[in-house]
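User: quick one
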Amino acid sequence: MTLQTLNNTRELAQQLRVDSVRCTTAAGSGHPTSSMSAADLMAVLLARHLRYDWQRPDDPDNDHLIFSKGHASPLLYSMFKAAGVISDEKLINGYRRFGSVLQGHPTPVLPWIDVATGSLGQGLPDGVGVALAGRYLDELPFRVWVLCGDSEMAEGSMWEALDKAAYYRLDNLTAIVDVNRLGQRGPTELGWDLDAYAARVEGFGCHAITIDGHDLNEIDKALAHATEADRPTVILARTRKGRGFSEVENREGWHGRALPTEMAERAIAELGGERHLVVNGPRPEGRPVQARPSGQVSLPRYQQGAKVATRLAFGQSLAAVGTQPSVVALDGEVGNSTHLEEFARAHPDRYFEMFIAEQQLVAAAVGLSVRGYIPFAATFAAFFTRAHDFIRMSAISRANIRLCGSHAGVEIGADGPSQMALEDLAIMRAVHGSTVLYPSDATSTASLVAQMAEHSGVVYMRTTRGAYPVLYGPDEVFPIGGAKVLRSSPDDHVTLAGAGVTLHNCLAAADQLGRDGIRARVLDLYSLKPIDTQALLEAASATGDRLVVAEDHYPAGGIGSAVLEAFNDAGHPVRISHLAVRDLPGSGTPEQLMKAAGISADRIAEAARQVLST
Amino acid sequence: MTLQTLNNTRELAQQLRVDSVRCTTAAGSGHPTSSMSAADLMAVLLARHLRYDWQRPDDPDNDHLIFSKGHASPLLYSMFKAAGVISDEKLINGYRRFGSVLQGHPTPVLPWIDVATGSLGQGLPDGVGVALAGRYLDELPFRVWVLCGDSEMAEGSMWEALDKAAYYRLDNLTAIVDVNRLGQRGPTELGWDLDAYAARVEGFGCHAITIDGHDLNEIDKALAHATEADRPTVILARTRKGRGFSEVENREGWHGRALPTEMAERAIAELGGERHLVVNGPRPEGRPVQARPSGQVSLPRYQQGAKVATRLAFGQSLAAVGTQPSVVALDGEVGNSTHLEEFARAHPDRYFEMFIAEQQLVAAAVGLSVRGYIPFAATFAAFFTRAHDFIRMSAISRANIRLCGSHAGVEIGADGPSQMALEDLAIMRAVHGSTVLYPSDATSTASLVAQMAEHSGVVYMRTTRGAYPVLYGPDEVFPIGGAKVLRSSPDDHVTLAGAGVTLHNCLAAADQLGRDGIRARVLDLYSLKPIDTQALLEAASATGDRLVVAEDHYPAGGIGSAVLEAFNDAGHPVRISHLAVRDLPGSGTPEQLMKAAGISADRIAEAARQVLST
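Assistant: Done. Structure below.
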């Protein structure tokens, strides 16, 4: 292991600047000036503080480096070149090109990148999750270094992150803020007022260090100091955007612009020309990872007919799945409503209270997934909308996270529309690679929670507030992507399809219709994405393409749309009678509100009669 | 005008507590203890500081009172009783009942409520918008008072709000934080550490006052002091949850629980019994409102065939619409990308830079709409996902806000997926009462921007990064809810439907097909919600139900789903060939990425040929 002298590091910093200019000019786009301001910071970090085995990116002892200011990707990729893991040719000819892993903003298609960034204000919250894993679960001495922009300090999520970092005393986390004073379209709010930043950081319980971000000695001391602090550290570095090239340095109008070729040539000359240094920075001390003993998962078993809320079944099942030592639970300060508290009681060491900060709730899950954990985050389904940009980005990160949203739909009753998730199915279905589950009873909930733990991507489960009868025997299995036929006969007249609470209404409607001699097949669409197209086709075929679909959700993009899309994709368009919540609800009892929304048993039966009469 | 003595105010506070207990016990649910902690604060405010003409809630001089801790609705409604505007009978028998305006969380179905709250962390950001209007646009001396919970201080959005309040020196804004130490499921992060809160508040540039929230004198002085400060004030009040009833005061386990009847009787007795005081608090000084002179709107006119990005047309058209004095623009620090800077140049006094804080960006729009302004907020379409909970809540507020999201889809090219909106149409379509527009050219953009200004509800426009030919003559009109047939003949074989960039691809595909003698009708679906069902039915009818729909969006919930839903609702199911972005994109040129996603002209033409061959 060779620690670099600061003199060599100066050369390295200039190389990072030159390469940032070269790759962006070659690509014709990108953010060279935002890279140049942070080059000294990253050069010292790479050469002297980041403990990383570049040949073994999966080494659990490696430090973690996250570019929260993802638009500085030229700097990050230039660091990879300096570390000797990508070639100069690949940097220059690959950056931002079609099919290349060197994308415009960092994504974990490269093994040295943990999470996708580029939507500002996310890398630091993600880093909090990684640091939580290191401090409380891995119990490994790795550090998490996050390069932040100054503009993104305007995002509330950054303060959620610092708040939680301090609360959990994440002394293994260091944020380095590149205070270059210039945002995309002009000066930032706080400019170079490092004291103002420091007051905020200290107010939020973290250790603030203010430095000249171009003074290698100051940088070196601050980074060393950060490793010794007993709290999370935020290094506030005063820098100059475009540092090192006089034509753009500290000037407005150069955000996100590649330099034209001739200008780039002058920049490279002023920066001392091309270099091809390869750095040998510090390596982690290899420590054997403790294998965690795995317990037997014994899912709860529910008696058919007993009334059990799916949110309770979720909590109980997750507590059972929690005997697997990788399973971690994250609460948005509503664990007594989502029933995540069942997990907390069983596995308090793997339960993290994130309080009412849904962005950090999801980001912590993303960070934990970086370290291979199986995070389940839960809050009211409506409040996951608060974190949707994080959910969207987690799909780009290919993160494996599980979200459980409780209190869905008008069924919640008196609390009113602010607490009712009525768009969540549409929103979560639209996420790339997502899985969307909506069980109707406790047995199916238990089966699906167990599968969620094994499933990759963003997996969302919607649960219901009220207690409804257990519909299935305890040994029934519910594969993701399946559906269940709960009522059928050889000559059914109409199919009633629902999920969650409307499935119970469909069953009651089938009973009503049965009394009039109308035989209704009832379909449980517990898996909305993927949806069981075959089951839909069979039901349609068996009932002459007569279908009623009822959902406790607004009409656009939810269960009805999922059904229409499935039929369309199968090449068999079917008209459905679509019952959904079309007016803005208020308070009331669940029964009053479902009736008013037209998704009650009566209304489903009426729709079935209409379908049969036309 | 009678200012209440503090002795009377003590009685008032007890009345507010008793009524909070009574209405929740009668309803069987709600949050009495969270109301009781803040009763002294609100009694002094109502009796001595809130300048409000209760008979004239539309008086522009009235102060504004927002309950950011919306679950304390029993306290708010009890204040309305004390102000003499709702009856005791309505309070007790209406609260949380079906059809009642006294919903579980405040909604503006009542004239004294500005915005819906209940998703925590939103009332204060909304209040920033109202205060912005008062300070910079109305230039009226009204004050904005926001009652906040301590738990919600964990939401980053609260710090976005204080940051912007300080940046804009909103001395007309006072936040009153009810620090009762107990959240829903246990103690809050900071407990009663008022100094920790104060350090954060002062760090964010606001004036912090710490008080005993049950000492009427201290409250009174703090509220008076707030009206004299030259910055926004945050009153941090140490309180006890359930204050006044010894069986629950400062005890865990009583969040969000109505007291059982016998317990309620004991509580009422301990609080001194029922009272029916009516308060005459201060009234606003009536000031004549200055009528704002309205200019002539002269929309830009674009030459057919010229290449103009719809994002540029948006900015230019909004600048033109800005001659109406109610139009206000809000930027998420990307005004040079969204082209909102065109408005900034023309109307700098009605342009607010919210920096990179999308939650506050949308909340400011909501607050401005409270004062009757016509706010347009713009950022990258992908980043509105950051504010989705605010958008969802704005629909419950019946707010009239306009959002413009630029840089949609893979078409943006090299920046990669973090910057690509690929779910926005699904998300925005799912919002209650929303309007979703996606113009393909500059002329239609101009027409739609002008209509957005007049349209109510949440109106969303998606714009495109690249410049494409102007398709329509400058006098063409584009009613919301309409569609345009751009190519047709009496005997078309197939319909190609798109919006935004894919419409241009549809046109190119039609040209390709035409060379092979295949006549393609081309449909511009510029209005996705409401969608022009009639136009879809006519096109389907004219082309034998052969349709190709192409969208630069993920497949679930977007344009394809909107088309399928429309056909379904019309009772005429049609199978569409649905081209959408199905894999996670990376960087590349727009052409490379659209080809890879299968939404290029070639792929549309190929899909049309397949439709015709089956």
